[in-house]
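Quick review question:
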C-alpha cells in the first residue's frame, strides 16, 4: 500500500497539472495541520482528492508541495532541487547509464521520514523517472515511451 501511495504522489508531483480546489473543500483538520506545520507559507493552492489533499505553496522563496491524509497528518512533502545536489555516486551512475538522455527535472521527496530523489530523464523517443536513494542507489521508478 505504501508503494501505491508513493507512486500516486510521485506521479502527481512530476509532470502533472491539476486544477486548484476551492479552499472551502479543504477539511478543517488539514487546514489547521497545514497552518501549524507551515506557518510561514504563502500562495497556497489546494487540490482535494478522495485519497489525499495536496497543497502547493511557497516558503522562504521555495516552492513546496505537501500531501495530507484526511486526519490532517502529513503523508509526504516534495520540492524541486538541482541535479547537482544528488549524491555524487548517483550523479556519476546517471551520467554513465543515461548518457543519451537529458535530465529534465529533479525532485526531492520525503515520505514518512524517508527521503528519496526522483529524476526525470528523456531523449527523443523515451522518458524515464529514476529513483535515487540517499546512498546513491539508482533504479528505474517509471518508464514512459
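Suggested answer, residue by residue:
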Amino acid at each position: 500500500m505504501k508503494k501505491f501511495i508513493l507512486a500516486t504522489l510521485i506521479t502527481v508531483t512530476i509532470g502533472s497539472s491539476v486544477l486548484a480546489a476551492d479552499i472551502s473543500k479543504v477539511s478543517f483538520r488539514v487546514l489547521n495541520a497545514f497552518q501549524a506545520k507551515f506557518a510561514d507559507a504563502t500562495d497556497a493552492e489546494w487540490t482535494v482528492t478522495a485519497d489525499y489533499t495536496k497543497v502547493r505553496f511557497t516558503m522562504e522563496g521555495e516552492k513546496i508541495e505537501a500531501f495530507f491524509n484526511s486526519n490532517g497528518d502529513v503523508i509526504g512533502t516534495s520540492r524541486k532541487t538541482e541535479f547537482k545536489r544528488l549524491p555524487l555516486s548517483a550523479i556519476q551512475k546517471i551520467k554513465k547509464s543515461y548518457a543519451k538522455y537529458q535530465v529534465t527535472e529533479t525532485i526531492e521527496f520525503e515520505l514518512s521520514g524517508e527521503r528519496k530523489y526522483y529524476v526525470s530523464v528523456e531523449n527523443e523517443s523515451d522518458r524515464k523517472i529514476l529513483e535515487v536513494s540517499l546512498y546513491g542507489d539508482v533504479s528505474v521508478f517509471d518508464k514512459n515511451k
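Why it works: Helices lie at 2-13, 28-37, 88-97. Strands lie at 42-48, 53-59, 62-68, 74-80, 102-111, 114-122, 127-132, 138-144.
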